[in-house]
């Protein structure tokens, strides 16, 4: 299975190739995608992304995880969360969402086993 391309990104709106719905925030992995609902784990901009937000994507057999912190990088990613991903043997890249989407699409286009979580607003 290949990681689906993120077809479009604008403030509050993301579209994944091959998926009929659009997302505000999303998770993607080889073979799939879904909305990233922060309410599931109680996530907020601070303290930010938690291991529980990433477990689903990490279980999909990825080698690299790309985290998009938002257009203005308001979403925090604690070092403990980065360490959690690395302890799973997965490379992690944390960046502003537009750059994160470009990096994710580049890796997916090369056939890499890449996953991502992306925040599309602040």
Describe this structure in words.
One of its GO terms (biological process) is positive regulation of fat cell differentiation. By secondary structure, the protein is an alpha/beta fold. It has one domain (6-118): MTH938-like (Hypothetical Protein Mth938, Chain: A), CATH 3.40.1230. The protein is 25% helix and 30% strand. The strands form two sheets. A five-stranded mixed beta sheet has the order 5-4-8-6-7, with helices on both faces. A three-stranded antiparallel beta sheet has the order 1-2-3, covered by helices on one side. The model has no long low-confidence stretch (mean pLDDT 97).
In total, how many domains does the architecture comprise? 1
Q: Runs with pLDDT <50, length 5+?
A: none
Shape: globular
Order of helices and strands: EEEEEHEHEHE
- How are strands sequenced across the largest beta sheet? 5-4-8-6-7
Number of separate helices: 3
Q: Name the average pLDDT.
A: 97
Q: Per CATH, what is the topology?
A: Hypothetical Protein Mth938, Chain: A
Largest sheet: number of strands, sense, barrel closure: 5 strands, mixed
Gyration radius, in Å:
13 Å
What is the helix fraction of residues, given as a range?
10-25%
Q: Could you say what the CATH architecture is?
A: 3-Layer(aba) Sandwich
CATH level-4 homologous superfamily? MTH938-like
The share of residues in extended strands comes to 25-35%
Structural class: alpha/beta
Distance between the termini: 31 Å
* CATH uppermost class: Alpha Beta
Total beta-strand segments: 8
């Amino acid at each position: 299975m290949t990681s689906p391309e993120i077809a479009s990104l604008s403030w509050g709106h993301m579209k994944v190739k091959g998926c009929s719905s659009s997302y505000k925030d999303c998770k993607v992995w080889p073979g799939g995608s879904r909305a990233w609902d922060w309410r599931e784990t109680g996530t907020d901009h601070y303290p930010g992304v938690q291991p529980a937000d990433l477990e689903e994507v990490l279980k999909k057999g990825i080698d690299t995880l790309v985290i998009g912190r938002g257009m203005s990088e308001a979403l925090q990613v604690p070092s403990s969360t980065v360490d959690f991903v690395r302890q799973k043997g997965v490379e992690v890249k944390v960046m502003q969402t537009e750059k994160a989407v470009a990096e994710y699409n580049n890796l997916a286009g090369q056939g890499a086993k890449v996953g991502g979580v992306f925040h599309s607003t602040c």
